[in-house]
Structure formats: structure tokens, C-alpha cells
């Protein structure tokens, strides 16, 4: 198998576990597919600009969530009680029920093994409510304080997302882009990405200013599925063509409020404009 074949052909890949993992493949999950932007594009309902943007780009999977029978069995009252107890408030349409146990998320084995190794006992509130949404490919703003498990709330679905995409080809940029306001936060996120992405052999790199560019350029040129970056240095790398955002299908703005307070809005807009597909996850 060439490294450019889809991960579907990889015996260890998540798609091979599809039937019993609870994760759905786009065409088998017709209702979510029908309402997706890709389906709208395929039906000619996407705006002309968007259609041009999408021309020539391969389709991608973004809905990996199937509610487990025990989550489906939760009554509205039980859901309300769980949210009240864990201090979860939600806004928006069709918000999925929270997942109260790791086993109910339908994460593939390689993710569950990492969670067990870390010794976690239950999802934190932002994970319980955020995972079903992020795994569904929903746009999401999550607000939770530091130490609440917010990093894994977006990273574990990101890892599942990457493992369902075709392998990177030469010249491809990352599939997951996480923007963070500071080098310190970017490095912390990278540590989590390295720990939890190791079993599926995902590569990541951290792009931030104030250090020589050489090693970061070399990482980008080797090809990395996950890039964690501060906005200024990332723009520098984009402008000097050391990477591109054509393959990004999962975008996270970590501490988005802080980035805006720090005046990063023009840089964020410049970066987001280069993301052809938008699956936006914000967290604070
Ligand atoms: P945060 O800065 O909000 O991402 O929180 C990070 C800390 O929470 C790290 O030490 C993680 O290992 C830890 N963490 C993440 N998820 C859980 C969980 N479900 N149970 C216990 N600790 C967790």
C-alpha cells in the first residue's frame, strides 16, 4: 500500500473497526450527510464562492458519532439532572445528549487505551458534552476553565478525525490546525497531542515565534497531521510557502477570547481565509 492510499486500507485504521465501533461512514449516515456542506455543494446549493473553493478538493468525513444505546436511553430528565450536577449549560439546536462514561463515546480502541493509561475515571463536563458535538462535525464554542480537560475535549475527536482522512501526500499541510495565543499554551497542547496521538502514529509540530525557524520548517516539510501554532509565526510559514492549509478540515481556536484580546483578529482572519473547509471548534 502506498502512503497516499486512504487510511481505510490500513488494517489498523479506525474504519476497519467501523461496524462495531459505533462510528458511521458518511454514506452510511445519510441524514447527517444530507445536511452537510459537502452534500449541499454536491446538490449545487452551496454559494458560488464556496463552490469554487471546494472545486477539486476531495470529500472528507466529519461525522463519526453514533449515540450508544445507554446514552439514547437517557430520558430528558436524566440529561437535565446530569447537566445540572456537572454544571453544564448548553445553547443551540439539536445539542446531543452528554456522554457520561468513556465507553459511551464510541472512541476507537487506540483512543480508549490512551485514556486508560492516563488513569482517568470519567469525562470532565466539557468532554461529556463536547465530544458528541465535535465527533459529529458540529461547529462548537466550548467555554471551560484551565484544568477542566478542554484540550482533550477537542484533541481526541481531532485524532479520530485525522485517522479517517486520506494520508498526507507530499506538499500537503496539516489536517488539524490548533491556534493558541502563546508559546506556553501551544507547547502544553503539543504534549497532550503527542501523548494521545502516539498510538495512531500521528505526527504533530508546534509553530511559535521567538526561536529559529529551521527545525519548525523541517517538521512542516516532512509532513505533519496536526499543527499547533501561534498566529504570527504560522502566517510567516504560510507566506514563505513552508506549509499550506488546503488539507485543514478541523480547526480549533484555543483561548479564542484571549487571542482576540491580544489583537490577533486580523491574523486569525487571514489564517481562517485559507481554510477551504470549515469545521470550527472554539474553546476558552
Ligand atoms: P486543560 O488545561 O483544561 O486541558 O486540562 C488539562 C489537565 O486535565 C491535564 O492534566 C489532563 O491530563 C487532565 N484531564 C483531561 N481529561 C481528564 C479526565 N477526563 N479526567 C481527569 N483528568 C483529565
Automatic annotation (TrEMBL):
Residues annotated as domain Helicase ATP-binding: 131-284
Domain DEAD-box RNA helicase Q residues, every copy: 100-128
Region annotated Disordered, chain positions: 1-58
Enzyme Commission designation: 3.6.4.13
Motif stretch (Q motif): 100-128
Signal sequence bounds: none
A molecular function GO annotation: hydrolase activity
Name of the featured protein: RNA helicase
UniProt keyword annotations, A-Z: ATP-binding, Helicase, Hydrolase, Nucleotide-binding, RNA-binding
Listed Pfam families: DEAD
EC class (word): hydrolase
Listed Basic and acidic residues bias regions: 1-31, 40-54
SUPFAM superfamilies per UniProt: P-loop containing nucleoside triphosphate hydrolases (SSF52540)
Gene3D superfamilies, sorted: P-loop containing nucleotide triphosphate hydrolases
PROSITE patterns named in the record: DEAD_ATP_HELICASE, HELICASE_ATP_BIND_1, Q_MOTIF
